[in-house]
Amino acid sequence: MMVEKKVRYESVIFTTLKYLVLVFFAFWTILPLVSCIITALKNAEEYQSTSVMVLPKIFYFKNFLEAFKLANMGRAFLNSFVVLVCVLAGSIIISSQLAYILNRFRFPGNTLIRRLFLFATLLPGVAMQVSVYSIMGKLGFINHLYGYIILMMGTDVISIYIFIQFMENISVSLDESAIMDGASFFKIYWKIILPLLKPATITTMILKGVGCYNEYYCANLYLQDMDLRTVAISLYTFTGPLGSKYNLICAGVIISMIPAFIVFILCQKHIYSGITSGAVKG
To answer: Minimal CA–CA distance to 254: which of 90, 39, 88, 95?
Structure first.
């Protein structure tokens, strides 16, 4: 009896500590968002005279309209949508085809190519921007939306390895049966392999989509025209040498979160299935 009570007592303590830790980290995760919402509902005078966690006396919803108009966020959302669709489609096709070649075909240099891809992930992107900018300039891709799309659509090493990992669980007998029926390698990839890579595709779309939607450095470097700005760099309209309008910046941040929130609500079933399928092999 004493042993059972001790075990039960320890279990209660462990469960209590576990939930306290979860509540603590949830609080610190939600706190910046709450602060951002409160700041977005204040006018400039009230923001400067009160703390960021003090509720506004009057909810100033005009900030959202002003931020949307001054930052030209309608155009920015359109640019981000075009970039996101093109980059996701191109990245998935390129990465899955490279993974198909590296996984299904054994040729001299296969292992070397994989190691070079792995080595490329160790190189910091900022360190290579001088050469990349020079190449983009010579090709005439700077200050053009298609140039930025091609740059972002470049080989994604993480996506390649995700597709390779999933492809290892697809039996080679499917390829052999299709070849016996007269199917070409491209038809095998398009009709058999790619549909079976749905979990990997969803996982890749999540990782690539979030990174592309939030990408600021390259967008600010290669898209210098006001009409080519994406959502990530449109918010910097309210910053300047004389100060920053944080109430409008926070309003713009809330607006920029709405599309991502809607996509998550509509596609959460597929997102969860893609993540959980990616966590288990075999």
So the answer is: 39
Question: Residue 38: which of 253, 261, 271 has the closest Cα?
Answer: 253
Contact partners, residue 235, CB within 8 Å, separation at least 6? 71, 249, 252, 253, 256
What are the tens digits of pLDDT across the range 1-44?
Answer: 555 666 677 777 888 898 999 999 999 989 988 999 999 999 88
Q: Specify the pTM.
A: 0.83
Residue 66 near residue 44 (C-beta atoms within 8 A): no
Q: Compute the distance between CA of residue 216 and CA of residue 239 in angstroms, rounded to an integer.
A: 15
* Of 83, 72, 212, residue with least CA distance to 156: 212
**End-to-end alpha-carbon separation of the chain, Å?**
44
Query: Are the C-beta atoms of 159 and 204 separated by less than 8 Å?
Result: yes
